[in-house]
Design brief:
The protein is an all-alpha fold and 195 residues long. It has a single domain, classed as all-alpha NTP pyrophosphatase fold, CATH 1.10.4010. Helix content is 66%, strand content 0%. The chain contains seven helices and no strands. The longest helix has 29 residues. The two termini are 18 Å apart. The model has no long low-confidence stretch (mean pLDDT 87).
């Protein structure tokens, strides 16, 4: 897991430099931290929605479904960086969880994403509030549990997750070098990844 955390840091550093930001300084800045927690929360939520759509259309176990599970990992590690959750705190379980239904995993993941959102002061009309870092960390740890449940649902052991992650990290670097954007986005480069 340590290598994945390091590779994700490198990708985030590269990506943010492309928009004139320093990743390390940005996520330590109190204002920047909140912005990037929300950015990565939204991105993780989008990946989870794509996974749900994939399963709804094609069932559990598709190659693209496994890639979507690993895509979630990119943003989960990024959230861990911000909240100073160490790679050693999220080691994969020794054995996969028992028979976890996909819908149960997805619901728990969406609820953890909601808990993460609620740890931020996002209700502009509400009095009080403020960033609740302990609640944010708890939510991210819940997301780690959900991630490992997703791995179990898709039959992904950690060695396979790492292989897919490293391949997808490479694709993401290439996308950044090609000035990847919403207008040029497609999934063709994902098809080269053996999941």
């Amino acid at each position: 897991m340590e290598e994945i955390f390091r590779l994700q840091w490198s990708l985030n550093d590269h990506t943010l430099r492309n928009i004139g930001l320093d990743y390390g300084n940005t996520i330590k800045d109190p204002e920047g931290k909140l912005i990037w927690i929300e950015n990565y929360r939204k991105a993780l939520s989008a990946e989870l929605a794509e996974l749900v759509r994939e399963v709804h259309e094609f069932g559990v176990g598709t190659q693209n479904g496994r890639i979507e599970v690993v895509d979630m990992l990119h943003f989960l590690v990024s959230l861990s960086h911000i909240l100073e959750i160490d790679s050693q705190d999220v080691t994969p379980p020794d054995s996969p969880a028992n028979e976890i239904p996909f819908d149960g995993f997805a619901l728990r993941a969406f609820l953890a994403l909601d808990d993460l959102q609620n740890s931020l002061k996002w209700k502009w009309w509400a009095k009080g509030g403020g960033f609740k870092e302990d609640k944010a960390k708890d939510a991210v740890m819940q997301l780690w549990t959900s991630f490992y449940e997703a791995c179990s649902v898709f039959g992904l052991g950690f060695p396979r997750v790492k292989e897919i992650y490293v391949a997808k990290n490479r694709v993401n670097f290439q996308r950044q070098q090609k000035e990847y954007n919403e207008d040029t986005k497609n999934e063709d480069d994902n098809r080269s990844i053996r999941a």
